[in-house]
Design a protein that fits this description.
- The protein folds into 2 domains: about 5-125, Immunoglobulin-like (Sandwich), CATH 2.60.40; about 140-370, Zn-dependent exopeptidases (Aminopeptidase, 3-Layer(aba) Sandwich), CATH 3.40.630.
- Helix content is about 30%, strand content about 30%.
- The protein contains 7 helices and 17 strands.
- The chain has helices spanning about 160-175, 200-210, 245-255, 260-275, 280-305, 340-345, 345-370, and strands at about 5-10, 20-25, 30-40, 45-50, 55-60, 65-70, 75-80, 85-95, 100, 105, 110-120, 140-145, 180, 220-225, 235-240, 310-315, 325-335.
- The strands form 3 sheets. Strands 1, 2, 3, 9, 10 and 11 form a 6-stranded antiparallel beta sheet that branches. Strands 13-12-14-17-15-16 form a 6-stranded mixed beta sheet, sandwiched between helices. Strands 4-5-8-7-6 form a 5-stranded antiparallel beta sheet, with no helix packed on it.
- The protein is elongated, with a radius of gyration of 35 Å.
- It is an enzyme of class 3 (hydrolase).
């Protein structure tokens, strides 16, 4: 707070009988002028407001009257006058100015301070500085697979569907002021081009995706397409954890690269999930992840009307490094004759994108934004 005008009057210079002083400062940036009277302890005083005049009667004498002009937006002039009690200070307020109730502060030893604030008229007050905008939430959207890894193939290719949905989610969220980071925005994986071995590429790719959950991010959503040996349809959402369900375990192994690599990475993800049981912060994060999964699944089912296959925990490697709410969404089955064809349609993918985005927005509105450390 900067004082735009400040004047100190030594009462002795005005022939007051006792040592004391008065000063004022106009704080235009906050819309008021403050008057401070520092007086010896025991000095009698009284204040009275009558229209645009504020009288301050003090038990100190003054020999001659004097008129002072602060020259600010709240007070037109100040007069010092002798009175029967000692002295009277008159504050003549400008039209629309308002004097607040006086209050007393402790002063130096043997003294106290009488304070009167006069609010400037509304038109004369400086507009308060705008409040800083909070940083936008940052959401990481991970379109599964890409490049040499097509993912599951049926009536559609998984890598094509996941990227298309991710781009649609990004557009929806950015329109709501959410910052979106895509792990990929084209048909490629995240492994170096020099690496030719598929398993090695898959490991490097998943590591890069998993590490993108770190940093100044709030939520992580990985998008995938399901498949099954027997006809199956519907949407299911996963968060990191262990599982005893053979089908879920097989799905995790497949999404983690399949074969020996998939089994190896699944074991690593299981170890991470087990370690989280002893970590209170990680436990809280898993609870938020489960809630994010619930929110997204509810919104997806509401928009598509497809089968609700539930929320489950599973050792997906892409979720193992997450210190923020993180889920993996299986948006449908590529090899189901009806659902596979739906996944090929732009209007159905738009419904899926809207459902995922709505679940994310619901989660951010329910407090995960703050909980994630933004």
């Amino acid at each position: 707070m900067r004082a735009l005008a400040s004047l100190v009057l030594l009462l002795s210079a005005l022939a007051w009988a006792s040592p004391g002083w008065m000063r004022w400062a106009a704080h235009d940036d906050e819309g008021f002028t403050r008057f401070v009277f520092e007086l010896p302890v025991g000095t009698a005083y009284a204040t009275e407001r009558s229209g645009a005049l504020v009288r301050v009667t003090l038990g100190l004498s003054v020999k001659a009257p004097e008129t002072l002009r602060p020259g600010d937006a709240a007070v037109e002039r100040v007069e010092l006058q002798p009175s029967a009690e000692g002295a009277e200070v008159r504050l003549y307020l400008r039209p629309g100015a308002t004097a607040k109730k006086p209050f007393v502060l402790e002063g130096p030893e043997g003294r106290f301070r009488l304070v009167i604030d006069v609010l400037q008229p509304e038109a004369g007050r400086a507009a308060p500085p705008p409040k800083p905008k909070p940083p936008a939430p940052v959401v990481v959207i991970d379109p599964g697979h890409g490049g040499p890894d097509p993912g599951t193939v049926g009536y559609v290719k998984e890598k094509v569907v996941t990227l298309d949905i991710a781009l649609r989610v990004k557009k929806i969220l950015e329109a709501r002021g959410i910052e979106v980071v895509l792990t990929r925005d084209g048909d490629y994986d995240l492994a170096p081009k020099s690496v030719k071995d598929f398993d090695e590429r898959k490991l490097l790719d998943l590591n890069q995706r998993a590490k993108m959950t770190n940093g100044n991010r709030n939520l992580f959503v990985s998008i995938h397409v399901n498949s099954a040996e027997r006809p199956a349809r519907g949407i299911e959402v996963y968060y990191l954890g262990k599982t005893l369900d053979p089908r879920t375990l097989a799905l995790a192994i497949a999404e983690n690269g399949g074969g020996e690599l998939g089994e190896k990475l699944t074991q690593k993800a299981e170890s991470t999930a087990e370690a989280a049981l002893a970590d209170l912060i990680a436990q809280g994060n898993l609870q938020f992840s489960a809630r994010l999964a619930d929110d997204i699944l509810e919104q997806l089912i509401a928009r598509t009307g497809t089968k609700n296959r539930g929320v489950h925990s599973a050792p997906f490697y892409v979720l193992r490094y997450a210190r923020i709410p993180a889920v993996l969404v299986e948006v449908g089955f590529a090899n189901h004759p009806t659902e596979g064809r739906l996944l090929a349609r732009a209007d159905y993918r738009q419904k899926l994108a809207e459902g995922i985005a709505a679940g994310i927005l619901e989660m951010l509105g329910n407090g995960a934004y703050a909980a994630a450390g933004r």
